[in-house]
Design goal:
It is built from 18 helices and 5 strands. By secondary structure, the protein is of the alpha/beta class. α8 crosses α10 (165-176) and α9 (149-159) packs antiparallel against α10. The longest helix has 19 residues, at 72-90. The structure holds flavin-adenine dinucleotide.
């Protein structure tokens, strides 16, 4: 069972409750996994990942109740996702290498490790795992059970509601000691006991020591981030936009600027029933809130929509590494043949941040206050 709401209004109500009741203790409490429904963390990731809600919207809400310096840890976490996405933009070969790994190992049926079994079931039942449990789970998967990090990343990919190519791939690599090279994350029984509030204590069940022989590894020289030469969000003749899982609220930005446009929403079935249902329901909410949005299921539907609406200028959500839908595809050739001029729109939030995400998070973190000043956060 999932405990994630399907409407934006419920999501905002939850975020307000979280801001009023939990956020003041987030920094000291966030590392505890007390079990579902995880009231001590925001559970905003499945929505933010799809930009069903944006970073600016989240911060606009939480900053109604707190000053920036009171919730620095939460803001920093919001920027971790931005950082991972930006880092992967400058190291795309890391994702290409992972993608070539198609040996999708099955998860071991019974490991005898109670906490591991619990997290496996929780993930399969709810599509969510607390951050600390993701770290422990990944560590046990790699170091105690001896499976590859790629097969674990695939397991998360197929089951997480918030699956994000950057956060997931780099999260697994970080645990494996490949991201901060030579420093693996080793799950320890005492740490699990403390941060699960004594719900689990896998004493003598885990491999708590591991020497990595990959000190000579390197992640390669980062590519510079080149800001895309994108159209600004201004008025164009016969303008259309397409929403998809890369950005489900782009239309709101155009509305705020009183720009007239046609809009369609691409929904693709997901083989995981829980994820499919979640995506379907939040897409229904978007359409219920705006009856002008047309549903499309494939490229043929889009071509028809472009013709029917006589679209001549098209804005598509920017596609970061691991999120390609329209890019590198026959699609772009076909719409050019329909005399449609297209652009991939990178939100200002990403555009400002990605250039700083080429090295470690420590460096990136120094830019957070500048990035907050640049962001369009309504107070
Ligand atoms: C092995 C592994 C795999 C992961 N895979 C994913 C994934 O596929 N998709 C995904 O969204 N996150 C992933 N994460 C990051 C993190 O676990 C989740 O973002 C977080 O648990 C989401 O829960 P929340 O919204 O309640 O977080 P909160 O603690 O409430 O944090 C608020 C927001 O900050 C961001 N955030 C918090 N922690 C992290 C983090 N460590 N890395 C990046 N962003 C963070 C998320 O957007 C999150 O929604 C992974 C972490 C690990 C260790």
């Amino acid at each position: 069972m999932t405990n994630f709401p399907f409407t934006k209004s419920e999501l905002i109500t939850n975020l307000i409750n979280f801001s009023q009741n939990k956020l003041q203790n987030y920094a000291s409490n966030r590392n505890f996994d007390y079990g579902s429904p995880h009231h001590n963390v925001s559970k905003i990731s499945p929505y933010l990942r799809r930009r069903f809600i944006s970073e600016e919207e989240i911060l606009s809400i939480v900053l109604r109740y707190h000053k920036i310096n009171e919730i620095e840890k939460f803001i920093e976490e919001i920027f971790w996702r931005t950082y991972w996405r930006g880092w992967l933009e400058s190291h795309p070969w890391i994702y290409d290498q992972y993608k070539t790994y198609d040996k999708d190992e099955c998860i071991p049926e019974k490991t005898g490790i109670k906490c591991f079994e619990h997290w496996k079931e929780e993930l399969l039942d709810t599509g969510y795992l607390h951050n600390h449990s993701r770290m422990w789970f990944a560590s046990i998967w790699i170091f105690t059970l001896g499976y590859s990090w790629q097969s674990g990343a695939n397991f998360f990919k197929n089951n997480l509601l918030d699956f994000c190519p950057a956060s997931n791939t780099l999260g697994w690599r970080w645990v494996a000691g490949l991201q901060t090279i030579g420093k693996p994350y080793l799950a320890r029984a005492d740490n699990i006991k403390f941060f699960t509030n004594k719900r689990f204590y896998p004493q003598n069940e885990l491999k708590e020591n591991f020497i990595l022989n990959n000190q000579n590894l390197t992640n390669g020289k980062p590519k510079d981030f080149i800001k895309p030469d994108a159209k600004k969000l201004i008025k164009y003749e016969n303008l259309g936009i397409i929403l998809n899982n890369n950005d489900l609220s782009l239309h709101q930005l155009l509305k705020e600027k009183e720009i007239i446009f046609e809009c369609c929403l691409l929904f693709k079935e997901h083989k995981n029933i829980l994820i499919n249902n979640f995506q379907k329901k939040i897409c229904e909410d978007i359409k219920n809130n705006d009856h002008n949005i047309v549903s499309v299921n494939n490229f043929q539907d889009i071509y028809k929509w472009l013709k029917d609406k006589n679209i001549k200028n098209l804005i598509l959500p920017y596609e970061t590494v691991g999120n390609k839908v329209f890019y590198e595809n026959e699609f772009l050739k076909n719409i050019t043949n329909l005399e449609v001029r297209y652009t991939f729109y990178l939100r200002e939030w990403d555009c400002n941040a990605f250039q700083h995400a080429t090295k470690g998070f420590f460096n990136f973190k120094k830019k957070i206050s500048t990035l907050l000043n640049q962001a369009n956060i309504k107070k």
